Amino acid sequence: MNDSPQNLTGKILIAMPGMADPRFARAVVLICAHSDDGAMGLVLNRPLPEIDFGDLLEQLGIEADDTARPIEVRFGGPVEPGRGFVLHSVPEHGDDPEGRLRIGRALAMTTTRDILEDLAHGDGPESAVLALGYAGWGPGQLEQEMLDNGWLTGEGAEDLIFGAAHEEKWPLALRAQGIDPSLLSAAAGRA
């Protein structure tokens, strides 16, 4: 990852009303990694209520016990929809084991089976969600979509990730940037 001011790792993307791709209409996306090679993010406001965490564990051969917490499953994006990513809280200081990508001071993404086993036994991070698939952009693609008024950027916030009703995340994200969602138009223009 680069450390230039253009690095969006840990920021959120908020889809503008004119977003051409229906998979991202009114989406709020957390950017997990961003570099000159492209970007990777997880959609924060697309639940998959038809997929149960317990059923997923069973399919993976992980036996849950009575202490397992209910973990929400979400659509993370259209790329590799069969791949799981656990977005979770972490202590602000400490080492990151293999398979964990720290996104911010107290937020990380983990792709290893170990975290699923921990969650199945009531252990693991305090806050966690499981995303299936991810949103990906090639070199310069996200930057071009931003120039084309497809996305606004903002600061990531735990309440957007782990709290708030999904239908409220898009307007909340806009309001956090000082924007009234009712005043946005799908039409773009140049002065």
Automatic annotation (TrEMBL):
<dbReference type="InterPro" id="IPR003774">
    <property type="entry name" value="AlgH-like"/>
</dbReference>
<dbReference type="GO" id="GO:0005829">
    <property type="term" value="C:cytosol"/>
</dbReference>
<dbReference type="Pfam" id="PF02622">
    <property type="entry name" value="DUF179"/>
</dbReference>
<comment type="similarity">
    <text>Belongs to the UPF0301 (AlgH) family.</text>
</comment>
<protein>
    <recommendedName>
        <fullName>UPF0301 protein SAMN04489859_10127</fullName>
    </recommendedName>
</protein>
